[in-house]
Amino acid sequence: MQLSAFGHKFSAESGIVTLMEDLGEALNSNPDILFMGGGNPARIDALESLFQQRLNGLLEDKETRHSLLGIYQSPQGDSELLTHVAQLLKQQYGWNISARNVAISNGSQAAFFVLFNLFAGLQADGSRKRIQLPLAPEYLGYSDSGLSEPFFTATRPTLELLEGDAYGNPQFKYHVDFENLKVDTDSAALCVSRPTNPTGNVLTNEEVDKLDQLAKAQDIPLIIDGAYGTPFPNIIFESVQPHWNNNTILVLSLSKLGLPGARTGFVIAREEIIEAYTRANTILNLACGNLGTSLGKALVKQGDLLSCSNDIIRPFYQQRLDHALRCASESLAGISYKIHKPEGAIFLWLWFDQLRISSQTLYQKLKEQGLLVVPGEPFFVGIEEPWEHRQQCLRLSYAQSPGTVKEGFALLSRVIREYQ
Predict the structure, then answer these.
(1) What is the end-to-end Cα distance of the chain in Å, rounded?
(2) Range 53-70 burial, b when 16+ CB lie within 10 A, else e
(3) What is the residue-level pLDDT of the chain in tens, covering all 420 positions?
(4) Which CATH fold topology does 73-158+174-302 show?
């Protein structure tokens, strides 16, 4: 089979493809495996009941039923939902935005493909620019989204050792290394996730302000991936301020609210960026799906987005996190490890500094034993220099049931002890 350069790149093996294949196997083909990989949100009964109520309400009205399946959305998205989202953000944070600053996407993964390639890659003058990741490790789903290579550059973080948590787990934290962060004419945009996937790091207000200043100085956008952040689903355990201005592109999603199958996200940016994004997204997708849009509109109109996030989702994951930390402390006693301070999202990022095999090999051995996790190497997008730390980390989800998490840590402990 003869493939184009595009065909070779996008049909090759990649971290995000492996992750989604594992997720599909765990959730659909092999439900007995201990699943602590992927980013699938937890099942929360109260949310599922609410979603059912809102869906039933949509199906009761003939015209609404027709709009779910029988029409295309406009290129930018449903105008009523755009207005509701803009009003929500304006009321909540005082941002000077309107519906013209919002576009709907088929999930944030699709949004980032469009956004990254709008700014980076081959330029009109023949030069090439790259997306700059100020803090690696960063979301592995970014890594293969560029239409050309090299597409990303990243700055190795500083690493702060912290005191143990309440359960005795040794902790550490990554910080942006501003002394070595160089933003220049080769940079097309800065991009960070907040909270960070995979580590649960939440950039401080000061770090975000500095990144904003660096981006403005080069007249490039600061892109913030808020898939786990504020105002929804608000899986943040630190007191920080959300950030947006005319030079910021904020990407939000309904996935971690408990609706990954709805594939609905939001791009918040100045009007000219929204216009460019909308045109490109229309060429690629024609229109966004209606189900997530209609359900999202019902949730916003009823005030459910914020109440669910603050009263159900964040407390739920705080309890799951506490349980996971307790399991880690009990199972990993006597093993040399550290956990990145979990400030948000739904993951624990573990660093085994005495590991004698790579995390990629460890991932395979754990999978053979019936535990799915995610190896650390693919998350260090844009860091090309050798760094042993890259091969010593694992990402574990604590979104699954307490029993699964407890069994998972017990199995991890047995396997790790063979290779330290």
Answers:
(1) 44
(2) ebeeebeeeeeeeebbee
(3) 887 677 776 766 766 666 556 656 655 556 678 999 888 999 999 999 999 999 998 888 788 788 887 888 889 999 999 999 999 999 999 999 999 999 999 999 999 999 999 999 999 999 999 999 999 999 999 988 999 888 999 999 999 999 999 999 999 999 999 999 999 999 999 999 999 999 999 999 999 999 999 999 999 999 999 999 999 999 999 999 999 999 999 999 999 999 999 999 999 999 999 999 999 999 998 889 888 999 999 999 888 999 999 999 999 999 999 999 999 999 999 999 999 999 999 999 999 999 999 999 999 999 999 999 999 999 999 998 889 999 999 999 999 999 999 999 999 999 999 998
(4) Aspartate Aminotransferase; domain 2 (3.40.640)
CATH of 5-47+307-419, one of 3.40.50.1100, 3.90.1150.10, 3.20.19.10, 3.40.1190.10: 3.90.1150.10
- The DSSP string of 373-395 is -EESGGG-TT--S--GGGGSEEE
The two domains 5-47+307-419 and 73-158+174-302 share their CATH topology (first three levels equal): no
Q: Domain residue spans in the chain?
A: 5-47+307-419, 73-158+174-302
Could you tell me if 194 and 226 are in contact, meaning their C-beta atoms sit under 8 angstroms apart? yes
Rounded Cα–Cα distance for residues 304 and 393 (Å): 37
Decide the pairing of beta strands 393-397 and 34-35: unpaired
